[in-house]
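Aim 2 progress. For SIS domain-containing protein, the working sequence is reproduced below.
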Amino acid sequence: MDMSVEFNTKIFSYMNTLTKAEKKVADYVLDNMENTIYLTVTELAAKVGVGETTVLRFCRRIGYKGYQAFKMAITKEVAKQSFDTSEETDEMNAVQSLVQKSTTASIQALKDTSQLIDMEMLEKAVALLTSQKRIVMYGASMSGNTAEDARNRFLRIGVIIEVYTDAHMQAMSAATLTKDDLAIGISISGSTKDTIDALRIAKSNGAKVISLTHSKLSPITHLSDVILLTAGRETPLQGGSMGAKISQLLVIDLLYNLVANQRKNEASRLKELTSKAVLDKAY
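Predicted C-alpha cells for this construct:
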C-alpha cells in the first residue's frame, strides 16, 4: 500500500546519511508500514535483524524524538491513506459495514487469543494466584480498567487483589512486596513505562511476576516469570482497542474459572455470600 509522498520523501531525504543498518530499518518500514504500526521497538529490531539501539537511532536521525513519536507519524499516514482511498457509501451501508467489521474483529480477537494460550503458563499463573500471600495488579488507561475488572471478579471467590493505576502508588506498593507476593502487570504493548517500572521494583524485591500482553518480544516479558499472551492489538491512534480489551478479559475469565474450580466448595460458598450481600441493591 503506497503511503503519502510527503512521508516517503522525508525518509528518502535522509537515506544518504543513514548507516547500512539504519537503511535496513528504513527499507523494512517503507515496505511494511501497516505492519510496523503494531510492532514494538524490540519486534521491529528482530524483524529487520538489527539491535534496538539502531532502530532508536534511525528514528532520531530522521527527526523524531523516539520510537513512539515515529510510530505515531506512520499511523497517521496509514489512516490518512485509508481515508483518502475509501469508497463513498450511503449512511446506512456505512453503519451496517461498521457493525459487521466491529463484530468480526471482536470474534477474531477471541479466537486468536484462545490459540495463543499456553497451557503450561496458564497453570503456573493459577498456581501463583492460589499460593502467594499478597497479590497486586498494575495497569494504565484501559489496561488499568481491566485490572479493576479482575479485582472485582476475583473478589467473589475470596481472592483479594490490590489494583494500582497511579504511577506513584504503583511504585510504592511494589516497594513493599516480598518473595511471598505476586505482581501482575497488564499492558497491550508490553512497553508501558509506569507498569514496567513497578514490576521491576517488585521483581527486585523477590516477588513473582505475571504479565498479560500482546507482545511476546517486549520489555514487560523480560521481567516475567509467567507470560500470558493476548491477541488484541492497537495502534497509537486507537488507545483503547475493544479487541484488545476483550482479549484481556478472556484471559482474566480463564484464570478466574480455573482458580474457582480448584477451590470448588470454598469458591461456591463465597460466591453465594457475595451475591447475597448485594441482593437488596437492586429494585
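The chain has two domains: 5-85, 116-281. This observation will guide construct design in the next reporting period.
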